[in-house]
Protein: MaoC-like domain-containing protein
Amino acid sequence: MNRSWSFISYFKYSSSSTDSNNILKVGNALKQVRVFTPSDITGYSQLTHDSNPLHYDLQCAKDAGFTSVPVPGMLVASLFPKIIASHFPGAIYVKQTLEFRSPVFVGDEIVSEVEATSIRQMKEKYMVKFVTTCFKDGEIVVIGGEAIAILPTLGIKE
Structure:
């Protein structure tokens, strides 16, 4: 089992929040910390058949202007649906936009965050829009974007 990731039970609440802390509200953020390994890149490449040498050949990466072999951006971005699905089992991912801003390298500690920006009830489910961001070194945005998911409940599973 890969032990290079962990969840942080962290929620950012608006100052007017008086409801129970385990119910998703606009302004709440869920975070996860992850450090990618060479075996993560190998597994991703095998699963997706992405054979871009940029992600496993140091000389190719250097020729492209990188200091090391970068982690595939889509592998890093996969943290967003993982956060949502792990806290809201049965969630349906509807949309994701991504902007890759800075490379991620093996060994970088990445903090991935999804923050609820709007919640709309649809019969017995909820359509939630999230701002999605991955940071390294605590402040450098490596991926930014937005996601929309349909959640079966607003109850946050720990």
Remarks:
- Helices lie at 38-48, 58-63, 73-77, 79-87.
- The chain has one domain: 5-151.
